[in-house]
Amino acid sequence: MSSTFAVRGGQAPTAPAAAPATGAEHRQTDRTDLTEVTARIREHVVTMCAGREGGHVGGSMSLVEILSVLYFRVMLVDPGFPAWPDRDVLLLSKGHGGIGLYATLAEAGYFPVERLAEYGEHGSPLMAHPNTEVPGVEMPTGSLGHGLALGIGFALANRLDDTDRRTFVVMGDGELQEGSVWEAASVAAAHRLDGLVAVVDRNGLQITGATAEVNDLEPLADRWRAFGWRVFEVDGHDVDALTDALSAAPGQDRRPTVVIARTVKGKGLPMVEDQARSHYAKLGGRQHRLALEALRKARRP
Ligand SMILES: Cc1ncc(C[n+]2csc(CCOP(=O)(O)OP(=O)(O)O)c2C)c(N)n1
Ligand SMILES: [Mg+2]
After folding, report:
1. Is 292 helix (H, G, I), strand (E, B) or coil?
2. Ligand 1, from 206, 260, 265: best to mutate by most atoms within 8 Å of Cβ?
3. Which CATH class is domain 34-299?
4. Which residue's CA lies nearest to atom 8 of ligand 1?
5. Going by CA atoms, what residue is nearest to atom 21 of ligand 1?
6. Ramachandran region of residue 279, left (φ > 0), alpha (ψ -120 to 50) or beta?
7. Is the pLDDT of residue 15 over 90?
């Protein structure tokens, strides 16, 4: 199997053949049913974790609805033309959720889902942390605490271009313990970057335990408000609540927006849900089977 994707690697981008599948015209109103796609993404994540490298299962499962709502309902993107200049941009600052992003990008049509089987193979661009060889990935991420500052760069560039394109930055809650996040938060508000939307995957856990025990973040919403941000707090597995918050038009006061999405780490896998040990797993054959069974059982009405 070749190690690079055909869409990138120096090829000149071609213009999209048709209007993008998702777009600004859908913002506020798009209620595409995501039941099947979120279920498939969860299965892809579990199957990638059964490969020889294993994977960040917990923090990928907590992201599934967030990423699905963004790519299938909210963002103005064209998976057939990832470099489309008018696109909205997503940066997965918590880059260890890479397999959740790959599964979403594949389901959205950026590359064939069959290529997810390459994850972790020597020479494959599908590595633990995202890199720009993967179609749809805008910036390499994984070193926590940098994504919001990168997002400021995109948002400032959009302002210079005088467009209303938006920049979404998805962060972990443990990641918010990085001081650089708060430097960026301060700058974004000072520059009134209302095209910038931060999303916090508020699963309450980091590698070594609960965020509340390691370095408490509360009162989190008040902290963001104090930094000059508009704050939404939603159930991060409720796709309609996420859609409302993520597609809300910028307010008159031109503040950047943060969506604090309350999630469950390992969501969908009862054996590890809400447990710090869900952070990384290499699933053996039996564990893989049990995980898929649990996901399929949850799908049955
Ligand atoms: C700068 C930096 N320090 C440490 C790490 C190692 N690391 C990877 S994931 C993680 C925990 C992050 O917790 P959180 O942001 O809450 O992620 P989630 O619960 O969504 O997996 C850490 C410390 C890193 N990737 N980057
Ligand atoms: Mg966390």
Report:
1. helix
2. 206
3. alpha beta
4. 96
5. 59
6. alpha
7. no
